[in-house]
Amino acid sequence: MTTTQTADHSDVRATNLAAVLSYLRANAPCSRAAIAAGTGLNKATVTSLVGDLIDRRLVRETQQTQNHVGRPATLLVLDGSAFAAIGLDVSARGLTVAAFDSAGGQLLRWHRAAPAADAAPAKMVAAIAALARRAVTTVRNSGRQVLGLTVGIPGLVSTDGSVVVAAGLGWHDVRLKADLIQALGNPPYPVMVDNDGNLGALAEHRYGPHAGAEDLIHLTGDTGIGAGVICDGRPLRGHLGYVGEVGHIQVIPGGPVCGCGRRGCLEAVAGIPAILDRVSPIGDEPDPDMEARLHELVRRAEADDPDVTKVLQEVGSHLGQGIAVLVNVLNPGLVVLGGSYATLAPWLAGPIDKELRERSIAPDAGGCLVTASTFGPDATAIGAVARSLDRLDAGRLPTL
Amino acid sequence: MTTTQTADHSDVRATNLAAVLSYLRANAPCSRAAIAAGTGLNKATVTSLVGDLIDRRLVRETQQTQNHVGRPATLLVLDGSAFAAIGLDVSARGLTVAAFDSAGGQLLRWHRAAPAADAAPAKMVAAIAALARRAVTTVRNSGRQVLGLTVGIPGLVSTDGSVVVAAGLGWHDVRLKADLIQALGNPPYPVMVDNDGNLGALAEHRYGPHAGAEDLIHLTGDTGIGAGVICDGRPLRGHLGYVGEVGHIQVIPGGPVCGCGRRGCLEAVAGIPAILDRVSPIGDEPDPDMEARLHELVRRAEADDPDVTKVLQEVGSHLGQGIAVLVNVLNPGLVVLGGSYATLAPWLAGPIDKELRERSIAPDAGGCLVTASTFGPDATAIGAVARSLDRLDAGRLPTL
């Protein structure tokens, strides 16, 4: 039996600081009175909480005044001058790093080619650490303190930040968090490692066009197919942190061999590498430039090349099968096609929708809308930033 | 964007009342000092909270003393004399009603044959209301106030308590909650309707041998196959309340026709009615006594009848396929085989485990243990009781 958590008055304060920050994130610039009205907190409490947030340089007053009726009120905005979060995405496409200040302003976004696919994990970890170090330096040179560094990986990440398996990277049991902390010299900010699907879901939940959706799944397939799940308003993690591993659900019994050794996995028939291999086989020489091959694929699809559109139609059906499983099990209100699936959405959406409707037991697919991500290839990096900012918005405030 | 919830001091009190009640539920009899030590609350707070709970007749002092060393302390136990919760299970096996007092003592447990399978829903609703009314009368005659009535249904239940579809009962769009409230004459206690899988999961989470497990799935298949999901410590509901509908995941493309009209659904190959139809076909005359057929099936399995053990082996493999999907998507630490699957577990467990290990992408099936429920056919009714008691333990206390 687990012990039920108790609460004290500092929890109340953290909860209410979080409410004020979230309100400002959605509505700034606004007055203390507007915050009180919007959050249901009384004005004296809001004044005290805002004072605290100003002291911590997370909020600042602005001279700007609200409309021109009545007495001008001093307005509040988020202050991004003191803190920033860093997110880093590791995929077969390369490394992407992004940093946003605590007000949501972008400080940097860089892309680097990854070491060759057959490079040892240690080489990749060194490349990740080098890129992270450069981003940290840039953030600090801007006068900001680093709130956190989160790294997204296309694979199983255990709760201690180790990568159990990332088939697309050829990784097994890489102690990424521990190695990174060492490579960065025990930094004062938290270092986190998370699954790319989970981070994509956080990006959609915080910044996407359907931000705040309570039941949302983000599906990505650039390396291995993975889903990030937000259910009843919270990101799901599961017993060991492995929620959302849909890539190895069997969709074609006896189908093509998958990287995992099984047959007919969703990943083997509908992952982006599998699609590219079917449409533009590259022989024995692995071509690292996935981007160029994808570009060519889209060009041919736009020209209605039947060899391409037929494959995309089939892939859409298989993805629809996989999404139908997610819909039956998790009843999301929204499924977001992320990564390169977003690019291919014009050809995938129709067959996905057809399968989804046929295979969902709930009428109208349980109210599920399927949509394409608007983040392009940066969703994971943005979600990684969001993870550190989510800690902030949950009331875990930094000290200056 | 949703507004983040704020907290006030009454939330703190509700949270702490809940912590004291939960501690007592697990550890009573115990002293105020033990509660303070176990919950981390200070003694003055515990004294005040316990006073409140005694006033509401949820806790009482007892003359019993703790061991014989030192000064005797007055001990506290849960008081079940003032309140009780009622749970009612509707399935193809019949109607089961249970009532437990707020201290967890059983007041009644009755089983009734259901109206014939082809009876109109209205007739079934009348039977449910009649049985509920009798249980309410019995609880009230014992001097207790009813905390809530929860009804479990093997089907899709929308958040407003309507049954969207329950194929095994032949129901479509039955406004069960509204109809029951009317039939019971607008009762003063809350009436809730929930999916049987969800309630089975609550029963395991509160009373099962692995009570308190944070990531648990309860699988039942007596009418339609359904799963109740507890993930990260919370029951999942989803966008419209349809989480856990695994019965119509396709396991055999082009397989046998399912009640839903699709082919090869898990329910059509591994549901209890499908198993019975394969092993002991009953011709054109539907036999309402599922219990007797199941008993005969077990007798033959125990006698190693190869016609039966071969079918159970196949069914176990298919269930393993379905459970592997749940494990890949939700990473549970525990899957509980409920209802009649628990009875058949000696024959199903081996093949389930084999498929699960082969099909899970996480090593060692993500740490998942598969076990049989110990509740027998009463899991849903017990879970329905637990749902009302969970409200109590969440700090929503009744007034006398």
From TrEMBL, chains A, B:
Superkingdom: Bacteria
InterPro entries to which the protein is assigned, alphabetical: ATPase_NBD (IPR043129), HTH_MarR-typ (IPR000835), ROK (IPR000600), WH-like_DNA-bd_sf (IPR036388), WH_DNA-bd_sf (IPR036390)
HTH marR-type domain mapped to chain residues: 19-62
Pfam families: MarR_2, ROK
Name recorded for this polypeptide: ROK family protein
SUPFAM superfamilies in alphabetical order: Actin-like ATPase domain, Winged helix' DNA-binding domain
UniProt source species: Kribbella deserti
Family indicated by similarity: Belongs to the ROK (NagC/XylR) family.
